[in-house]
Design brief:
heterodimer; A: 292 residues; alpha+beta; Uridine Diphospho-n-acetylenolpyruvylglucosamine Reductase, domain 3; Enolase-like, domain 1; 3 domains; 12 helices; globular; B: 776 residues; Aldehyde Oxidoreductase, domain 3; Aldehyde Oxidoreductase, domain 4; 4 domains; six-stranded mixed beta sheet; 26% helix
Chain lengths: 292, 776
């Protein structure tokens, strides 16, 4: 049965309503918005404990704002809306998000939300690791107010994250870079509605002289229970003038720092090799964007 | 095409809009008043014996109306195949509706009917089953070893059958050979992935008569198997034909557990009972058999076959079901009779394992054989430095040859050479590079494969039903109703058969409507399978329409005071040949035939003739006159990413000889659907199981990958070589299955052309290509 213990589908009109429902049901509640991952979870028997679904789509969290500090993306804003933001479409620093949004099928894009994709804490998702490489920050709300959790500390395990019982995600903030920056995302998949066999998101920042001042290299999709940041690969890039050779070296370093799983979708050896290829290709893509 | 008014035109399907909007005609949408919902409890173990089963808590749950456990159902052994007589010696009857002996993970052990699906599901948790777990074996070659767990009590070493075929002197043939090639080619388990799940609603009346609605490819087969399993008379079971079903592709050619269980639950509760599979249940119900084919082939330097040997191991799963039959079709049509060769031998082994059951799937054993044969031909040509087209043409059958297996028939229409030559022209074969081409990390290649011999139905094959029937009745408004047991599983046969009737009747395609049918009211029909419907059912429909037309012309002759032989009917008008001014509409003729004998006119009562009275109707029930072979050549261009191993199919040119094309758009749809399933088979589809428990790990579309629109090539060109099959309705023969037997070897051969990597086991995953390139 889909949700054998389900007792209530709650649609609160405000944040307090959500907090009340969360207090009542504790860890037996599940926040939903687009609901695109619900079937995948329930059919694998992962929602047998759920007694209440709390739909947060009436809270007015579907905003997408751009200011001088960066982007503020409401938790219930849709992928389809995010995709049409001019900055996402045009700015090199947001290239990773643009790339990641290519992959979800249109049915998913029209229903899936920013908050849902992040809070689901599924290590095989695409869009969240694009936020990770941009140093995104999860803003969550609990009974004692708002709390910030950096994306890089957000995922704590398979379907697990750093939010406490009683808290829920309301926004994802992405800081605007202070220097020239470009990002990119790459994915290995079998067909167009696949979870990642391996995915990678990278960001490179360069100073006026064209030297790399900072970098992020993130890999997901079977490299572990959460997406992981590959600091060794980042160190290959920092303080270097970026060339295809440096990108290739960072890819090799990335391959050396992952210890992926083997499953029915791909072997560990293949995922390791794809870490190298995808990190290298994503860096080359970011480099091309930087030169635009 | 001026010869025909209706045939050869892409008549639009009248049910298209209805279907894409989830039409009421799908059996999944059938509901009856007071209907109960039933669910099955399935074994978590792949090999076990039930020590005890206690359902008393489930029976007490509010809303539960009936529970069935092994003790409540007939223990009669049966074979579930619709298309063969139940008592056929070809079959092995070893399936039991609910058994205490568990042979695969997911085998049903109990069923519950309740007032809602949720209550039925909840009741399953309350059934207490005590299992004695036994050691399971999943690999067919391990299963054959001495000391392996015994799955069937009657099959030593778990071997169900060991058929052979032989012709000539194999050893002499190998002695004549200049070169000998050997290879082993493996295929995986795949599902048809129809859209509509297996579903049924069974009702019973106070006399114990059953009425059945089900998503199946054969209403008479369902009636026969149900009657056998339940030991009830066939005449007490009425299976209602659905206007259409949501796909089948072979998966709906056998009885599954739901139909007899729903029948027993209905008889027990005196209520209609509905059972529907979840997608997971569909995935573990039946699948294309995995086969391992060893080939040893001797050739002359000029490319002539001198000797061919093959050995095939078929994993038939936990019960024999299709195993004994699929291996024969595989052997004959994809190996033994595919090409000309004087010395041949084939050995088959059908092996029991603790895997899920095998089933029918478009091609029925041929995709596995074509994979081996057509891959190896490419290897032979590479070894001999010979053009693969020249090689195939050299060894192919010719038009007018005796049929290579069905000796009573000839290959009266057979244009494989035209398929090869025209396809080669369109793909640009002569510009194909022998060495990998392309830049950067991407390499492109072109490959070819053929399907030389196939069927249009099953006439001549032992113990397979092959006849069809139709009723064509003309209406007073000039239209006609066509009733036949033929199921349209998505191929467009409702439209194609109406076109054949319309052409024969001389009325517009839109004037023929596919009408109601059930097993009580229409003649027997074999299933929709074996590429047979257009040819076989088409011949029956043409005969019934021809009979109706003869009667129409007789009545018109009475009315026009002309000899019926001097009349013709075209575009809804009956006229005297050569004098088109002397005419009547079909509507006028039918109205007259059904009018009272004495008609009141302005001038007073007028007596018409007795001879012209009676509904104008034609009925047929007949076996088709032959079993012509369609044939095909497919060319594909692929691009291989040498860093990821990913393969993209860029272009497909598919040339078929299918005789006259009745509906070009429908035929093209068959080809494109076949390409989609073929690409899935070649590159990604794979039912996988936990190696420890045998539980399916690819039980939904998140884990079972098939090509979406994104993976499909932008260009699929269908070329139809319109031969004129003398025994076919308006010259037509079969099509469906040759569309998907060839893509896998064609793609493999294109990959070899692109990157020089030969993969012999399906699916060709990116990992296998990278390993072949030495990068893993």
């Amino acid at each position: 049965m889909a949700l054998p213990k389900l007792r209530e589908f709650i649609t609160p009109a405000d944040a307090q309503g959500v907090l009340n429902a969360l207090r009542n049901y504790q860890d037996r509640a599940l926040i939903v918005a687009g609901g695109t991952f619900l079937h995948g979870l329930e059919s694998r028997g992962l929602l047998t404990h759920v007694e209440a679904l709390i739909d947060i789509q009436r809270l007015g969290l579907d905003y997408l704002e751009s200011g001088k500090d960066g982007l503020k993306l409401g938790a219930t804003a849709l992928f389809a809306d995010l995709e049409t933001m001019p900055e996402i479409r045009n700015d090199p620093w947001l290239g990773a998000i643009k790339d990641a949004l290519v992959f979800p099928p249109v049915q998913v894009k029209n229903a899936a939300t920013i908050g849902g994709s992040v809070a689901a804490s599924c290590p095989f998702f695409d869009v969240p690791i694009s936020f990770m490489c941009l140093d995104g920050v999860v803003k969550c709300r609990g009974s004692s107010g708002m709390r910030d959790i950096p994306m890089q500390e957000f995922f704590t395990g398979l379907f697990a994250n750093a939010m406490e019982n009683g808290e829920f995600m309301v926004e994802l903030a992405i800081p605007r870079p202070r220097t020239r920056s470009a990002s990119a995302f790459m994915k290995v998949e079998t067909n167009a509605n696949d979870l990642a066999i391996l995915n990678a998101a990278v960001r490179i920042d360069v100073d006026e002289s064209g030297t790399c001042s900072d970098a992020r290299v993130i890999a997901g999709g079977g490299v572990g229970e959460t997406p992981i940041r590959l600091s060794d690969a980042e160190q290959v890039l920092v303080r270097q003038r970026l060339t295809p050779e440096i990108c290739a070296r960072a890819g090799l370093s990335a391959k050396g720092s992952v210890n992926p799983i083997s499953d029915h979708r791909a072997s560990a050896a293949y995922r390791s090799e794809m870490t190298r290829v995808m990190v290298n290709r994503a860096l080359r893509q970011a480099l091309d964007r930087l030169r635009q | 095409m001026a010869k025909f008014d209706v045939v050869g035109h892409s008549v639009r399907r009248p049910d298209a809009y209805d279907k894409v909007t989830g039409g009421r005609g799908f059996p999944v949408n059938v509901t009856l008043p007071g209907m109960l919902h039933a669910r099955m409890l399935r074994s978590p173990y792949a090999h076990a014996r039930i020590r005890s089963i206690n359902a008393s808590a489930a029976e007490k749950l509010a809303g539960v109306k009936a529970v069935l456990t092994p003790g409540d159902v007939p223990q009669k052994k049966f074979s579930p195949l619709f298309f063969m007589p139940t008592e056929s010696n070809e079959l092995i009857r070893d399936l039991v509706l609910l058994s205490e002996n568990i042979r695969y993970a997911g085998q049903p052990v109990a069923a519950v009917a309740a007032s809602t699906p949720d209550i039925a599901e909840a009741a399953l948790d309350l059934i207490d089953v005590d299992y004695e777990e036994l050691t399971a074996v999943f690999d067919p070659e391990e299963a054959m070893q001495p000391g392996a767990p015994r799955i069937s009590p009657t099959a030593a070493n778990n071997i169900a059958r060991t058929p052979t075929l032989s012709r000539g002197d194999l050893e002499a043939g190998f002695r004549e050979a200049d070169e000998i090639f050997e290879g082993t080619y493996c295929t995986q388990r795949v599902h048809t992935c129809y859209m509509e799940p297996r579903v049924c609603v069974v009702d019973s009346d106070m006399q114990g008569n059953l009425t059945v609605y089900a998503s199946v490819q054969h209403i008479f087969g369902l009636r026969e198997k149900l009657a056998y399993v339940l030991s009830r008379p066939e005449s007490g079971i009425k299976v209602v034909k659905s206007p259409y079903i949501g796909g089948g592709f072979g998966s709906k050619l056998d009885l599954v557990y739901i139909e007899p269980l729903a029948a027993l639950l209905s008889l027990k509760t005196r209520r209609p009972v509905r059972m529907e599979h979840t997608r997971y249940e569909d995935f573990i119900t039946n699948a294309r058999h995995p086969m391992k084919v060893y080939l040893k082939t001797g050739v002359k330097k000029d490319g002539t076959f001198t000797a061919r040997y093959a050995k095939t191991i078929v994993d038939t799963g936990a019960y024999a079901t299709h195993g004994p039959e699929v291996i024969m079709v595989h052997a004959v049509f994809s190996f033994f009779s595919a090409y000309r060769c004087p010395h041949q031998k084939w050995d088959g082994v059908v092996v029991y394992t603790n895997n899920m059951l095998g089933g029918a799937f478009r091609g029925y054993g041929a995709p596995q054989g074509c994979w081996a044969v057509e891959s190896q031909i490419d290897e032979i040509c590479h070894g001999l430095k010979m053009d693969p087209l020249e090689f195939r043409l050299k060894n192919a059958h010719h038009e007018g040859d005796a049929h290579p297996f069905l000796k009573q028939f000839t290959l009266a229409s057979y244009r494989l050479a035209d398929c090869i030559n025209q396809g080669a022209e369109r793909i640009g074969w002569k510009n194909r590079s022998r060495t990998p081409s392309g830049a950067g990390t991407k390499r492109r290649g072109i490959g070819v494969a053929c399907h030389p011999l196939w069927v249009s139905g099953c006439v001549g094959l032992p113990d397979i039903y092959e006849h069809s029937g139709a009723i064509v009745k003309l209406n007073r408004d000039g239209t006609a109703d066509l009733a036949t047991a033929t199921i349209d599983m998505g191929t467009g046969q409702n439209t194609t058969l109406c076109q054949i009737a319309a052409e024969e009747l001389g009325i517009a395609a839109e004037s023929v409507r596919m009408s109601y049918a059930d097993t009580d009211t229409v003649p027997f029909d074999a299933p929709s399978h074996a590429s047979r419907v257009t040819y076989s059912a088409g011949n029956a429909v043409k005969a019934a329409a021809g009979e109706a037309r003869r009667r129409l012309l007789q009545v018109a002759g009475e009315m026009l005071e002309a000899d019926a032989a001097d009349l013709e009917v075209r575009k809804g008008i009956v006229q005297v040949k050569g004098s088109p001014d002397v005419n009547l509409t079909v509507a006028e003729v039918v109205s007259r035939a059904e009018s009272p004998l004495v008609q009141m006119t302005a001038a007073g009562p007028k007596v018409t003739t007795i001879k012209e009275k009676g509904s104008i109707i034609g009925v047929s029930s007949m076996a088709p006159p032959g079993n012509p072979s369609p044939c095909a050549a497919e060319f594909v261009e692929v691009e291989v990413d040498t860093e990821t191993g990913a393969v993209k199919v860029l272009r497909v040119v598919y040339a078929h000889d299918i005789g006259r094309v009745i509906n070009p758009a429908a035929a093209q749809g068959q080809v494109e659907g076949g390409v989609q399933q073929g690409i899935g088979y070649a590159l990604m589809e794979h039912l996988q199981f936990d190696p420890g428990t045998g539980a399916c790990v690819t039980g939904d579309f998140l884990d079972y990958k098939m090509p979406t629109a994104v993976e499909m090539p932008a260009e699929i060109e269908s070329i139809f070589i319109e031969s004129d099959e003398p025994t076919g309705p308006f010259g037509a023969k079969g099509l469906s299955e040759v569309c998907l037997t060839i893509p896998a070897p064609a793609i493999a051969n294109a990959i070899f052309n692109a990157v020089g990597v030969r993969v012999r086991d399906l699916p060709i995953t990116p990992e296998k290509i990278l390993a072949g390139l030495g990068k893993l």
